[in-house]
Structures are given as C-alpha cells and as structure tokens.
Amino acid sequence: MNTVIHKADSRGAANHGWLNSSHTFSFANYHNPDRMNFGVLRVLNDDVVAPGMGFGTHPHQNMEIISIPLEGDLEHKDSMGNVAVIKEGDVQVLSAGTGITHSEYNKNKDKEVKFLQIWVFPKEKNLTPRYDQVSIKEIEKENAFYQVLSPNKNDDGVWINQDAWFHIGKFSKGNPDDYQIKKEGNGVYAFILEGDVEINGEKLSKRDGIGIWDTKNINVKATENARVLLMEVPMTL
C-alpha cells in the first residue's frame, strides 16, 4: 500500500477578491511539480465565490468536470443550452468532450457559495459533450458511504466517461466504514469535508486529503463528527 498526504494548509491559494480558492493540485498560477495529479484526478479546487459573482463564459475540452456544492446556490449555463442551479445535496458533471463553453455564478446576492470543482481526465477523447445533474439527498446514508458518481448511467449519482467512482460518507464520532476498491489498479483520494477522521491509521482533519493506492480496501473511522468524499480513480493516464 502506498499513500500521499496533503494537509489543508499545504494547498495552493488564490484570492481574487470575488473568488477565494484552495488548490490541492497545480492549477492556474499555483504550480507544484510534485502535485500535478493523483492518477486521472487532475484538479481539486475548494472554491468560495462572493455574492452575485462568478466565472464568466469560458471553454473546456476533453475533461470530466464535476461540481459538488457545499453551501449556497451555483447557477450554471452552457453552450448545450443547459440552464440550472445546483445546491448542497446536488452533484453535477459536465463531460466536455469535443468542446463546450459554460459559466458559473453565485445565484444569491446576499451570501457566498462554496463548492468543490473537480477535473478528471476522460477515458475516451473527443466524445459528444454531455451534461448530468442529480440530487443525492434521497440516497444519503448515515455512518456509511453512498455512491454519488460512477461510470454507469444506470447507477446512483451522475455518470462520467472514466472508470471512477465517488462516494460521500457522513459519520458520527466513533463510527467506521470500510471501502472496497471497485476496479483493480485504481486508487482512492479521500478529502475531508468536515470533522476529524482516521484513514488506515492516519489522522486527518477538515480539508486534508490523502491518496491511497496498491490496496484493495481502506478503513475510515470518525474521531469527531465528520463528512468525507472518496474519489476512486485509475492511477494511469
């Protein structure tokens, strides 16, 4: 088993006034040759957008872009004609394929929106762009991981063009859960959304991350009330 740990305060930081962003992996003006990606997981940005502000229309190509709101409402528009608002309890994926443009704005004028922006390299390039959004509130579980993303369109959560599975778990203090790797050769990057946990014996706190590979399962135990995002991804590009 191999591991890499990224503490919250070691992330790249960018404060643009309207946007305060923390980068687990190299992004924009933050470049760290030791933190370019974890397998096909290329970007993990922890974004806070000021009221009424946002990202103007910009292009993407051949990337799976996943947005997970943590607080507030994020308004999305794209060149495929999709207009939507995503909020806490939703997961959105934009499969950019041959190319799309989109914009993302904080819909509210009186409070911030906080969300994770995640980029995953696709399994196949130059496919037709696609949009998917689901509410995960109906599949939430207590003290167990539940799936919010997979490669299969008929499974729980959104589906993407990659052999990747995302799970979220909300745990009360003292509760554990085991996660079994779904595809041989994949690794798991765990990101602590809230609280304190132990993952395979490593102590982690809010916004810490740990990548684990060359193993068949991992164990997560909440040492305080906690919420954890697990991202299982192929380790080879």
TrEMBL record:
This is Pirin family protein. Residues 13-120 form the Pirin N-terminal domain. Residues 148-233 form the Quercetin 2,3-dioxygenase C-terminal cupin domain. Belongs to the pirin family. It comes from Polaribacter ponticola. CDD domains: cupin_Yhhw_N. Pfam families: Pirin, Pirin_C_2. PANTHER family: QUERCETIN 2,3-DIOXYGENASE (PTHR43212).
